[in-house]
User: What shape does this take?
Amino acid sequence: MYSTMVVDDEKWALRGICRTFPWEQYGFSEPIALSDPEEALHSILLSPPDVVFVDIRMPGMSGLDLMSQARANRVASEFVVLSGLQDFEYARSAIQFAAFDYILKPLHTDAATDLLVRLKTHLDGLARSPRANADLSSVHARQVASVLPGSEAPEEADAFTRLVRYIDENLSEPLQLKEIAARFYLSPNYASSLFRARMDTTFSAYLNQQRIEKACTLLRGTHMTVEEIARSCGYADAQYFSRVFRQTTGLTPMQYRKGDR
Assistant: This one.
């Protein structure tokens, strides 16, 4: 069975959430119910459950703070954010920390059942993947390695490799290190240090280099307009793109296209 935890500072809400979900019917254990987010974080770091249901607004430590610290410590648990607030900023922040879902309270039985079905399908898929199994079984090893100066677990090296590949394949998108690092369960600070240690550069400099290289390829190899190339390389403003291009190459995009030296 998949292990679960529910974290909510309001004890009446905590009891209600635990009673709403048909846990065992869909392969989940009865959840550990905690009202203190700091106690919950300590428990998660010691023994990460498969799924953590967390309230977003709690005194002392918010649900987002808890998720942030868990992700910074390479915790691979699935997080479901529970909130009484329909707020886009909260939802966007939850996505940045790779939350499985953002659910509004009060939660009705049908919605709770649907969520468990989707969670079970997702977790079953991970369990069938040898790679995912290896990732989940080595959570503690990664946590230990993350606090040792100069250490880098193989899983973290692989995560960084995939992070860099993701950047290379999504240059047209608005890329932020905080969001990308969360996608691969790395803290932004740790990902930033890996750019310096492994690539002798910064995230911003690497991103700019890759975007300008892509622009050079498109300028010489296609008939796309400068505006189209700017958008394809992640620049919403063509004038800003032209300025960055000239600062990087010493030429304007049109001069580069014509082969000026």
